[in-house]
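README: folding subset

This subset contains proteins for which both the sequence and a predicted structure token string are available. Records are stored as plain text. Below is the entry for MREG protein (179 residues), shown exactly as it appears on disk.
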Amino acid sequence: LCSNNNPYASFGATLARDEEQNLWSTPHDVTHTEADDDRVLYNMIVVRNQLDKDSEEWQKLNYDIYTLRQTRKEVRSRWKHILEDLGFQKEADSLLSVTKLSIISDSQNMGKARDILLKLLEETNIFPTSWELSERYLFVVDRLIALDAADEFFKMASAVYPKRPGGDRADEGPRAPQS
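--- output ---
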């Protein structure tokens, strides 16, 4: 039943393989780039695929992979929400799009972008409590600096996703910004 000579053996697996190779959020996501967090996810997928599907280890890894992908989608959604509130309705997806070809617009902005990103991590709940900073958002903050919108983005993130006492996440969703 299983033959290595079958030219159609991989046909049905192509879609699944595309989904597995896309580590950022959803299949065929054009924003995919390989960063440290992508390699962690990729390694989890490789290990899971080597396990028996009926095993407890496979189920745990599958759940962890799903959870990580959902967390990434949630963070991206938060960023997109703020960008749209700042008036970037049509540009939000392109501002969040990071590929292997993405570059920092001005090397002098790198330090400022890193500082703003760390400030977002420490002073807002735009990222979940256990989030490890992704290089992807360094590119996004750099773009915001180039558009002179980074400070406004931080203010909006602080209003919509304020840091809760004790480091609790803002799980109830975005709040309306305070005027």
